[in-house]
C-alpha cells in the first residue's frame, strides 16, 4: 500500500493546490475538477430528462407537441438549478461566500449581459404562457415558418425553403407575432379578385364559390363565401373567403392554386379581368 501512496501523493498534492481564495473559502484544483465534471454530467442529464419527459407525456397524455416540449424544457431547467446547487454544496463551497460573486454577476448583467438575461427570461415566459409553441406557424417581421425548437436564448423557425432562422426570444415577447395555428389549424384566406364593369356580379359570386368548392383543401364548414368589396377605379372588387386546415403552413401554394383555377374559370365564362387604362391626348398649338 505504501507504493500506492507514493504514486498518488503527487496527485493529491496537485489536487490540493489552491486556485483562488474567496473570503474564507479556498477553491482547489480538485474542487474545480469536481465541479467541471459534475457540471458536464448535469448538462448531459438535463438533455436526457427533457427527452424522457416529452416521450412519457407523448405516451401517457393527450398533450400536443408544443406543450410536451414546454413541460420537458421546464423540467430540465429545474433539474439544472437543483443539480448546480448540489454540486456547489458537495464541493465544499459555502453559498454565503458567493455574495461577492452574485454582486459581480449583477453588475455584469447590468453592463453587458442584459441582452442574454432578457432572452433567457423571455424564453421562460414563452414556455409558461405559450403565446407560441413548437409546431406553430408564425410570422415575425419578414420571417415566416414553423417553430421547431424553443431554447433558453433563442427560438428556431423552419421556413418553407427549408432554411432555419434563429430568432432571439425577446423578439417574440416585444414584437407583434402572427400565430397562424394558436387555437387550431383552421385558417381563413382572402383571395382578392377584380372584374370589369358590366360583368354580372352574381355570376362572379357563383363562379368563385364553384372554384372554392372544387378544391379539396377548402373546408365545407365553415363554407366559403364571397364579398362584394367595392366599386374600384378600374372594376368591381370581390373577395373570396375560404377556410383550410390542411394548407395552413403552405399559404402561398393554396393562394396560387386558387388563382390558377379562378383564371381558368373566368376565361371559360368570358369574365374579363380589367387592367388600368390611360388615355393620352396631344394638343397641337396653331401658329
For the sheet with most strands, the description reads: 5 strands, antiparallel
Secondary-structure element sequence?
HEEHHHEEEEHEEHEEH
Query: What's the number of extended β-strand segments?
Result: 10
Walk across the major sheet and give the strand order: 6-5-4-3-7
Count of separate DSSP helical elements: 7
What is the CA-based Rg, rounded? Answer: 32 Å
Structural class: alpha+beta
Helix proportion range = 40-55%
Per DSSP, what share of the residues sits in E-state strands of 2 or more residues? 15-25%
- Judging from the principal axes of the Cα atoms, what is the shape? elongated
> Please, what is the average pLDDT?
81
Number of domains: 3
Unreliably modeled segments:
none
Cα(first) to Cα(last) distance is: 126 Å
List descriptors:
single chain, 287 residues, alpha+beta, SH3 type barrels, Alpha-Beta Plaits, 3 domains, five-stranded antiparallel sheet, 7 helices, elongated
Please write out the topology.
Elements: H1 2-15, E1 18-22, E2 25-28, H2 29-60, H3 65-90, H4 99-129, E3 137-140, E4 143-150, E5 154-158, E6 164-168, H5 169-174, E7 178-179, E8 187-195, H6 201-214, E9 225-231, E10 236-244, H7 251-268
Antiparallel strand pairs: 1-2, 3-4, 3-7, 4-5, 5-6, 8-10, 9-10
Any overview of this molecule?
The chain is an alpha+beta fold. The protein folds into 3 domains: 9-129, no CATH class; 137-179, SH3 type barrels (Roll), CATH 2.30.30; 187-268, Alpha-Beta Plaits (2-Layer Sandwich). 49% of the residues lie in helices and 20% in strands. It is built from 7 helices and 10 strands. The strands form 3 sheets. The chain has a 5-stranded antiparallel beta sheet. A 3-stranded antiparallel beta sheet has the order 8-10-9, with helices on one face. Strand 9 and strand 10 (236-244) form a beta hairpin. Helix 6 (201-214) packs across helix 7 (251-268). The longest helix has 32 residues, at 29-60. It starts with a helix and ends in a 19-residue tail after the last helix. 16% of the residues are buried.
